[in-house]
User: Fold this.
Amino acid sequence: MSIEILIFEIETERFGVRSADVVEVLRAASVSPLPQAPRTIEGALNLRGRVVPVLNTREILGLPPKPMQHTDHLIVVQADGHFVTLRADRAISLLRVESDATDAARSEAHTHLIEFIAKTSGGLVHVLDPRRLLADGELVSLTQALTERAATEVAP
Assistant:
């Protein structure tokens, strides 16, 4: 069985997410700050009327901070009805890997966020699981609050 993943880079590291979890990939856009949000949240993005939190992927993955660049990509993913955006230095490509070319994440940094590690011709890719990213109760509460707030602002 094969798995299709979207590969992206942050710094010199390659990550991925299952393409089935990807809603869309956007060029860098204006992100509205969210006062008093945890450091793991950069702000929020208006995606055609849906307010979607933008994760500070660098903070979450322990990488050095960097201001948003016009060349960055925003990867909107969905898990269990919740939407969240990952900021990447660049989205690279979609790649299909065979399930026998994957390994469970073991003794790696951020193992709790990694669904599996894919072996590709370009090297190893740490495939993140949006469900695990959203497992943070504070993030789920924020996502629900943003969704409810957007619904009340749009309602007549």
About this structure: The CA atoms of residues 49 and 153 lie 10 Å apart. Residues 150-156 have pLDDT under 50 and may be disordered. The first helix runs from residue 57 to 60. The chain is about 15% helix and 45% strand.
